[in-house]
Amino acid sequence: MRGARRFSTTRDYDIVLFGATGFAGRLAAEYALRAHPSKRIAFAGRDAAKLEALKASLDSDADVIVADAADAADVARVAAAATVVASTAGPYAKFGSPLFGACAAGGTHYCDITGEAQWIALMAHEHDGAAKASGATLVPASGFDSVPSDLGCQLAVRRHVDVHGAAPTRVDNYVTKMRGAFQGGTIDTVVNEITNPTPRPPTPSLEGVAKTKIDWAKGRPFGTVALGGTTRHLSPFIMAGANCPVVRRSNAALNYADGLIYSESMALPSLKAAVTNAAALGVGGAMLRFAPTRNLLRSRGMLPESGAGPSRAKMLRGSYAMSFVTTGANGETTVTRWNGAGDPSCISTTVFLVETAVALAEGAAAAPGVLTPASALGAPLLARLRGATWGEGGDAPVITVDHGEA
Fold first, then answer.
1. How many domains is the chain partitioned into structurally?
2. Whole-angstrom Cα distance, residue 385 to residue 347?
3. Is 355 in the same domain as 340?
4. Are residues 155 and 304 in the same domain?
5. Do 349 and 143 form a contact (C-beta atoms < 8 A)?
6. Domain check: are 162 and 310 in the same one?
7. CA 276, CA 274: separation in Å to the nearest integer?
8. Considering the domain boundaries, does residue 7 fall inside one?
9. pLDDT value, residue 203
10. Cβ-count burial 19-29 (b if 16+ within 10 Å, e if not)
11. What is the pLDDT of residues 111-137, one digit of tens each?
């Protein structure tokens, strides 16, 4: 039942943007002020001077909240002031746990842009009960990790049921285009996951996770798939490790189908491109593991520094495309296409995060607890995203979704 607790009449702010002075946080602040000027928004972070500078640069009268992510009293104060906290302060396994727990305990809705699957599982294990008791809905992975995969799979399953009268047995997400650049914070998170992995929770974070089987082998090079009458060559998708567990949790919560098989892979135009992508992921992951090779990559301009990211012009040139192919028990198929305008890690992530926060602030959450984008918001969030544009010279819809032939 929709209509989780709303606090906009009793809390000081509709949305507090935590980590607002970082690269991702600034983008979120800009978009939130531009797209939702009626919302009561505050900027939070640990550096008062940087927060004031952000306000001045955006010509904003938003309040600022000085708070250290590691200080329990500080994050409790942030949670108490907000209807929703939207956090861009990662790596979350390093900096995010106190704020997550404060929101769960304090009845404060929450969303972030993490792609740290093990950390999400740990937070769900530790705080789902408290969130349900307090009425808080917490939605980690509300950026490019993992909104398109999660909502796209949900939409594809529903399309298959509408067309064929039964749920599919398999959903394959083929990423056919990916044009964008990494932020420095993303690299920091990947390095932290590699060098300091989050421990696995002692028990599953959500009943029913066994309902879904992840086909991790689908993206191995040398496989092919026919999409739109064209043969494409398969290769691993860098974000599959973040996205697949989110989709699995959504199936557990929403009961798409028992035994559903889900996969994510790149579907590239040539075998050379597929092999090159796979090799780059393997070599790149190995080089990120060690400080000397990381420093070498940064010295040659191959990795962004912390707090840095692509230029505005480069962000606007970015785009991506996904095709969700569903298959039923008798081989029947449907195709749902999700296309994104703008850099995935910058423009898409920003819009997804802020629109998730606004939806939570307006009471659209289906239930309290530690949920996924699909299980928390689903269709209301999709409707918001379909109507969203970036502005600032990027006036095309941030996403378009349609259905077609394989």
1. 2
2. 12
3. no
4. yes
5. yes
6. yes
7. 5
8. no
9. 63
10. bbbbbbbbbbb
11. 999 999 999 999 999 999 999 999 999
Q: What does the pLDDT average to over 274-279?
A: 92
Q: How many Å apart are CA 109 and CA 102, to the nearest integer?
A: 10
Q: Which residue has the tokens 């495309």?
A: 321
The backbone torsions φ and ψ at residue 90, rounded to the nearest 5 degrees and listed phi first, read: -110, 180
> Does some domain include residue 3?
no
Backbone angles phi, psi at 336, to 5 degrees: -120, 125
Q: Three-state DSSP class for 259?
A: coil
**What's the maximum distance between 2 C-alpha atoms anywhere in the chain?**
62
Question: What's the mean pLDDT in 323-337?
Answer: 97
Domain contains 214: yes
Q: Is residue 208 part of a domain?
A: yes
| CA atoms lying within 13 Å on the CB side of residue 194 | 16
Rounded-to-integer distance, Cα 251 and Cα 247, Å: 6
Report the predicted TM-score, pTM, of the whole model to 2 decimal places.
0.93
Alpha helices in 196-257 (DSSP H): 240-254
303 and 165 in a common domain: yes
pLDDT in tens, 10-19: 899 999 999 9
Same domain, yes or no: 72 and 195: no
Q: Give yes or no: residues 151 and 275 share one domain.
A: yes
* Same domain (yes/no): 289, 272: yes
Secondary structure of 1-54 as H, E, C letters? CCCCCCCCCCCCEEEEEECCCCHHHHHHHHHHHHHCCCCCEEEEECCHHHHHHH
Task: Provide the token pair at 375.
Answer: 């299980």
DSSP 166: S
159 and 225 housed in the same domain: yes
87: left (phi over 0), alpha (psi -120 to 50) or beta: beta
Q: Examine the pLDDT at 5 and tell me if it is beyond 50.
A: no
Using CA atoms, how far residue 397 sits from 33, 129, 134, 155, 338, in Å, is: 18, 37, 36, 18, 12
Q: Look up residue 159 and give its DSSP letter.
A: H
Which string of b and e fits 220-230 if b means at least 16 CB within 10 Å? ebeeebebeee
CATH code: domain of residue 111: 3.40.50.720
- Digit-coded pLDDT (tens) for 63-107: 999 999 999 999 999 999 999 999 999 999 999 999 999 999 999
Structure tokens belonging to residue 267: 């579907």
Q: How far apart are CA 364 and CA 344, in angstroms?
A: 25
